[in-house]
C-alpha cells in the first residue's frame, strides 16, 4: 500500500502548471496537475485506445474539448474521456486535477518535463 | 466525454455508506463511496491481479490494512493498493472517497447493493 497527499507533495508554479507523477504501473498511470488561475492544459489527444478520468480535487475552471467546447469544472467533478478524444483544462482559480490513464504508456509524458515521483511506500 | 459531479450525484445515508458507480468500462471501474462519520468499508481483498487507487475527496478518517494497520486519511490523500492486498476505510467525519480499479471486473460489486449509474453523456 502506497500513500501520498496531493496537497503536501505538489505545489503551484507561476511559469506553468506543475505536474506530479503519482503512480505508473502496468495497470494505470496517475498524474496530478496543479494550475494557477489562468493556466491551462491545452486541448490535445493521442491516437491510442484507452480512457482517462479527470477529477477536480480543488478549484474552478473549464474542461476543454474539441471545437472549443467547454464544460464548467469544479471540485468533485469527474470527466471520462477516450484518450483519442480531444481534452484539456483551463483554470479560473488555483486548481488541483487528478488524471488516471489506462493503459499507462507515454501519455502525459510530453506535457511537461519537471515531473517527480511523489510516492512513499508504507 | 462524460461528466458528473460527485457532490451533486451522491449523498450520505444513516444506515451504511452510499455507493455510486461512476464508470465501468474495459479500461477501469470508478466508484464513489460516501461515508457518514463512523461508517466504514471493512478490510477486504480479492484474489485477482490488478491495482486500485483510493482518493479522499473530502473528510477525514483512516485507511485500513492487514493486521489492523491504519494510515490517517484526509482530503487529497491517494493510496495505491494491489487488489489482492487487504484494504478498507473508516470515516471519522463525513467522507467522500473515489476508487479506481483496474481491471474492472466484479470487484466492488459485493460491497453494497444500492449502486446507481450517475453518468451523463455530453
Throw out a few tags for this protein:
homodimer, mainly beta, Jelly Rolls, five-stranded antiparallel β-sheet, four-stranded antiparallel β-sheet, 11 strands
Averaged pLDDT of chain A: 88
Terminus-to-terminus distance of chain A: 6 Å
CATH class category label of chain A? Mainly Beta
Portion in strands of chain A: over 45%
Count of spatially separate domains of chain A = 1
Largest β-sheet summary of chain A: 5 strands, antiparallel
Oligomer: homodimer
Structural class, from secondary structure content of chain A? Answer: mainly beta
Spatial strand arrangement across the major sheet of chain A = 2-3-10-5-8
Count of separate DSSP helical elements of chain A: 1
Low-confidence stretches of chain A: 112-122
Provide the succession of SSEs of chain A.
Answer: EHEEEEEEEEEE
Amino acid at each position: 500500500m502506497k500513500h501520498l497527499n496531493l496537497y503536501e507533495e505538489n505545489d503551484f508554479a507561476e511559469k506553468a502548471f506543475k505536474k506530479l507523477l503519482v503512480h505508473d504501473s502496468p495497470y494505470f498511470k496517475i498524474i496530478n496537475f496543479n494550475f494557477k488561475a489562468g493556466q491551462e492544459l491545452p486541448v490535445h489527444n493521442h491516437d491510442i485506445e484507452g480512457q482517462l478520468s479527470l477529477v477536480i480535487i480543488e478549484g474552478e475552471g473549464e474542461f476543454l474539448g474539441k471545437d472549443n467546447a467547454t464544460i464548467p469544472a469544479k471540485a468533485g467533478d469527474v470527466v471520462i474521456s477516450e484518450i483519442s478524444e480531444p481534452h484539456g483544462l483551463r483554470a479560473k482559480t488555483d486548481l488541483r486535477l487528478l488524471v488516471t490513464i489506462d493503459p499507462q504508456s507515454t501519455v502525459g509524458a510530453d506535457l511537461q518535463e519537471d515531473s517527480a515521483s511523489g510516492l512513499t511506500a508504507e
